[in-house]
């Protein structure tokens, strides 16, 4: 399992390695800043969907141990989301905080994207063993925020697109499937009268 | 560092000037933005604004970063799918309120017009911009040949409808065919041209071959590509993006930094190939020529 997580760690850095190489070799096209920011946003969402796939996938015989790499998958999502946000603040807004705040308040797709990122922040911070122990049963409840963050991420993508909503719709379908799959388990939880949050 | 002559360098080692300047400007700006951020300065004001030169966008970039949804919605898809647009034979229908309507072949359409060069800024509503040397002729010279009638108040344009070949038209992304329109005085303005080429070459398919409209003071989506029909009308024609999202895309779509778009503020733009945004100019810098057309209009309502 240690070997697997080391392997995953290297794999997780590959998109960033490609982006660095592509930026250096001028492979990012006519608008490299836009390309780089969107690339990081795509990967943040993909790692998040992978994180949410762990629970269904571990039912598959032989994949039960997948749960051990879930934290790393989630942290990679946070890592690329951070690059995405930093790219926006540094390369799109040039650290012009006034224009950033205005953009944030005026344009719904930016607002929703920012909320999605902010919800990931406490999850990344409390992802350590120490916090898991300290928060006990509250840890699981806190980390249900990931569903809201993922939904906001897809809405952010949908609102950003001008006319061709195929790509955000496909991501929405995948997310919906991952959430619907959990409904039976949630029903059992409800029946046991454990409050959901 | 003192200058040192390096005898190993030959002419082949010299970076072409345009690349050199571009890269140097990019590095300089990156460094300045970084330094400004450290000092807590707003780089937009700290640098005193970007140099306002309008050098032509490199051909490669102008032909590989396109919005032409008929050939795909990704920016590089129109170039990749360029051969799906079949431009020969090509003819254009000119009808509506004209004395001599008809369908003319491309050759017939172009024959009487002397092709001239126009270097124009192109500003996309998505807040990026380019500078493109077009070859073409004023639209008004074309319209006059067909003798517009007194009741002609608008000009409507239509792009080729060919879902069998155009991959974007297999899905209803927009209500195909793509349609655009101008008010008669905008269409007759000497800055409004029909382009048949760019950078001294024939128009690449992804840029709207074989003929397209170029209206430099309006957002790029007004400059309809691959035109097959021009109709003079009395009523304001339906236009594709306005039909799709009227609160986002107006009929006029004049470049205006003071009228924000629900999706993007329009006060600045990224010139393709440059690092920092530059301020957007009203009417894309052509206000001296065209502001008079809108003298009595509220531009924030008629956006």
Structural features, described:
The complex is a heterodimer of chains A (197) and B (303). Chain A has 197 residues and is an all-alpha fold. Chain A is built from 10 helices and no strands. The two termini of chain A are 32 Å apart. In chain B, strands 3, 4, 7, 8, 9, 11 and 12 form a 7-stranded mixed beta sheet that branches. Chain B has a 5-stranded mixed beta sheet with strand order 2-1-10-5-6. In chain B, 19% of the residues lie in helices and 21% in strands. With 303 residues, chain B is an alpha+beta fold. The longest helix of chain B is centred in the first third of the chain and has 22 residues, at 17-38. Chain B contains 9 helices and 12 strands. Chain B has a single domain (11-294), classed as Sulfite Oxidase, Chain A, domain 2 (Alpha-Beta Complex). The A-B interface holds A 29-31, 33-34, 90, 94-99, 102-103, 106-107, 109, 160, 162-164, 166 and B 33, 36-37, 42-44, 57, 60-62, 64-65, 69, 73, 75-76, 126, 128, 171, 173-174, 244-245, 260, 262-265, 270, 272-273, 275-277.
Short description:
Chain A has 197 residues and is mostly helical. Helix content of chain A is 78%, strand content 0%.
Reported CATH architecture of chain B: Alpha-Beta Complex
Tell me, what's the shape of chain B?
globular
In the predicted model, the low-confidence regions of chain B spanning at least 5 consecutive residues are 1-21, 32-50
Helical content of chain B stands at 10-25%
Q: Largest contact between protein chains?
A: A-B, 22 and 34 residues
Strand percentage of chain B: 15-25%
Rg of chain A is 18 Å
Integer count of domains of chain B: 1
Give the CA-based shape of chain A: globular
Instruction: Assign the structural class of chain B, choosing from mainly alpha, mainly beta, alpha/beta, alpha+beta, or little secondary structure.
Output: alpha+beta
CATH topology (fold) name of chain B: Sulfite Oxidase, Chain A, domain 2
Please report the total strand number of chain A as a whole number: 0
> What is the end-to-end distance of chain B?
54 Å
Radius of gyration of chain B, CA atoms, in whole angstroms? 21 Å
Task: Give helix and strand order of chain A, one letter per element, not per position.
Answer: HHHHHHHHHH
């Amino acid at each position: 399992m240690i070997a697997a997580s080391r392997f995953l760690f290297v794999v997780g850095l590959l998109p960033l390695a490609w982006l660095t190489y592509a930026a250096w070799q001028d492979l990012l096209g006519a608008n490299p800043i836009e390309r780089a920011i969107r690339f990081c946003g795509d990967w943040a969402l993909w790692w998040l969907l992978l994180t949410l796939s762990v629970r269904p996938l571990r039912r598959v015989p032989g994949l039960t141990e997948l749960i051990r790499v879930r934290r790393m998958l989630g942290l990679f999502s946070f890592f690329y989301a951070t690059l995405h946000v930093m790219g926006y603040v540094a390369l799109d807004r040039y650290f012009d905080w006034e224009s950033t705040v205005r953009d944030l308040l005026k344009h719904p797709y930016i607002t929703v994207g920012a909320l999605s990122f902010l919800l990931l922040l406490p999850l990344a911070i409390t992802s350590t063993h120490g916090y898991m122990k300290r928060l006990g049963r509250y840890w699981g409840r806190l980390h249900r925020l990931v569903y809201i963050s993922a939904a906001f991420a897809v809405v952010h993508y949908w609102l950003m697109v001008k006319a061709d909503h195929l790509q955000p719709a496909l991501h929405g379908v995948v997310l919906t499937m991952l959430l619907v799959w959990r409904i039976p388990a949630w029903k059992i939880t409800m029946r046991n009268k454990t409050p959901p949050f | 560092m003192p200058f040192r002559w390096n005898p190993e360098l030959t002419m082949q080692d010299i970076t072409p000037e345009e690349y050199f300047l571009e890269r140097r400007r990019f590095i300089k700006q990156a460094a300045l933005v970084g330094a400004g951020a450290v000092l807590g300065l707003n780089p937009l004001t700290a640098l005193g604004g970007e140099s306002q030169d309008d050098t032509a966008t490199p051909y490669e970039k102008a032909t590989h970063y396109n919005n032409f949804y008929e050939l795909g919605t990704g920016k590089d898809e129109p170039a990749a799918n360029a051969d799906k647009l079949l431009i020969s034979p090509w003819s254009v229908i000119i009808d509506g309120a004209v004395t001599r309507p008809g369908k003319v072949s491309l050759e017939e359409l172009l024959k009487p017009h002397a092709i001239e060069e126009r270097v124009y800024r192109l500003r996309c509503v998505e807040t990026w911009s380019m500078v493109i040397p077009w070859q073409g002729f004023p639209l008004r010279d074309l319209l006059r040949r067909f003798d517009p009638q007194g009741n002609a108040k608008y000009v409507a344009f239509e792009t080729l409808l060919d879902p069998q070949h155009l991959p974007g038209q297999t899905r209803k992304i927009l209500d195909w065919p793509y349609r655009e329109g101008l008010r008669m005085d905008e269409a007759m303005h000497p800055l409004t041209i029909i382009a048949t080429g760019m950078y001294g070459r024939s128009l690449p398919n992804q840029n709207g071959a074989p003929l397209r409209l170029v209206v430099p003071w309006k957002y790029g989506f007004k400059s309809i590509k691959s035109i097959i029909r021009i109709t003079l009308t009395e009523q304001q024609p339906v236009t594709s993006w306005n039909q799709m999202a009227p609160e986002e895309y107006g009929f006029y779509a004049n470049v205006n930094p003071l009228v924000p778009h629900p999706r993007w503020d329009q006060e600045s733009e990224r010139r393709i190939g440059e690092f920092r945004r530059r301020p957007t100019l009203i009417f894309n810098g052509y206000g001296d020529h065209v502001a008079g057309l809108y003298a009595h209009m509220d531009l924030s309502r008629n956006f």
